[in-house]
Design a protein that fits this description.
It is a single chain. Strands 1-3-4-5-6 form a five-stranded mixed beta barrel. Helix 2 runs parallel beside helix 3 (153-163), helix 2 runs parallel beside helix 5 (180-205) and helix 3 packs across helix 5 (180-205). By secondary structure, the chain is of the alpha+beta class. The longest helix has 26 residues, at 180-205. The protein has five helices and six strands.
């Protein structure tokens, strides 16, 4: 059955949002004040799409719907909101509304789970992600703690995409993967490269064991 096209207000941003990800936003442009106010009043989502560098109002064609979960209205009309990513969508066309914000014609774009088991990939990505977070924490002086690490293929793939520190275009590439196994495979290779890089950084900045500051030469 062909997915039904629906109209969705769009918010092009320098952000790639994934399902289940929290995104705080400060709303100050008049057109987006109107859009967000309508979404809140009607309890409706809007679409977060990555804006193209060359054309900020021309978004990428894969985005994620977001719903406002908390809002603080300021006296001058601005708003501080917290949103939660819900589901991916494919953008087919868009147009400007009477208030200036974009409205897109979208269809759902859920992750495809292949018949072949993804367990080996899930295991590899989970193990590499745990090492990545540990080494990232050591390099930055931070400690990452997750009480409930995901185990299902889609959850592992999305969680990994959220926490990886990558350029926006690379994040968008992850968001655009149709198959869960493809996303996991890409993430596995990215993590392998990131771990290699973090190891090089760690070995470069690690002080000598005898703590001598100056060269022994």
């Amino acid at each position: 059955m062909e997915a039904k096209v629906r109209a969705l207000p769009l918010f092009p941003l320098n952000v790639v949002l994934f399902p289940g990800q929290t995104l705080p936003l400060h709303i100050f442009e008049p057109r987006y004040r109107v859009m967000i106010r309508r979404c809140i009043e009607n309890d409706e989502p809007f679409g977060v799409v990555l804006a193209r560098d060359e054309e900020p109002d021309e978004p990428h064609d894969i985005g994620t719907s977001a719903r406002v979960t908390d809002a603080e209205r300021l006296s001058d009309g601005r708003m501080n909101i917290v949103t939660l990513g819900e589901e991916r969508f494919r953008l087919h066309d868009f147009r400007a509304s009477e208030h200036g914000y974009l409205i897109g014609d979208v269809t759902p774009f859920p992750f495809i789970e292949d018949a072949a088991p993804a367990d080996p990939l899930v295991h590899t990505v989970s193990q590499r992600l745990a090492r990545y977070l540990k080494r990232l924490g050591e390099a930055s002086g931070l400690h990452f703690r997750f009480d409930h690490f995901p185990t299902q293929p889609v959850d592992v793939a999305v969680f990994t995409a959220i926490v990886l520190r990558l350029p926006l275009e690379q994040k968008q590439f992850l968001l655009s993967q149709a198959h869960v196994t493809d996303l996991l495979a890409v993430e596995s290779e990215i993590l392998r490269e990131e771990l290699k890089m973090l190891s090089i950084i760690a070995s470069t900045i690690r002080p000598p064991e005898d703590r001598h500051i100056f060269s022994r030469n």
